[in-house]
Amino acid sequence: MDYKKTNAPTNTVTRNLMELCEDTGNIYETVSIIGKRANQIAAEMKNDLSKKLQEFASYNDNLEEVFENREQIEISRYYEKLPKPTLIATQEYQEGKVYYRNPAKEKEKLQ
């Protein structure tokens, strides 16, 4: 998933809860699905940021080098401006891009 090209809003948006829970019929289940996807996105973003910042890591403690590294600051600012993982996950859920299943409901249907 390329979270950099998402059309999710960068700030909080008021949403209609009844529209969000149309698929599952339960708002708590919907929130759980979105929350789990948001955790996945957050972990992916954290790994990407860590990999990019590792390129600039210095292993000596020199104060002048800390203030000179503008590229590292720009990368951090870029990631701060991205939409939050919860907003990305909600947008994906609304667009139908999130796959989920509930084994308990599937078991009920079989019986």
Compose a concise summary of this entry.
The protein has helices at residues 17-20, 27-54, 63-68, 70-81, 85-95, 103-110. It is mainly α and 111 residues long. Helix 2 (27-54) packs antiparallel against helix 4 (70-81).
List key phrases describing it.
mainly alpha, 0% strand, 111 residues
Structure description:
The protein is mainly α and 111 residues long. It has one domain (15-96). Helices cover 62% and strands 0% of the residues. It contains 6 helices and no strands. It has helices at residues 17-20, 27-54, 63-68, 70-81, 85-95, 103-110. Helix 2 (27-54) crosses helix 5 (85-95). The model has no long low-confidence stretch (mean pLDDT 83).
Q: Topology of this structure?
A:
Elements: H1 17-20, H2 27-54, H3 63-68, H4 70-81, H5 85-95, H6 103-110
Helix pairs in contact: 2-4, 2-5
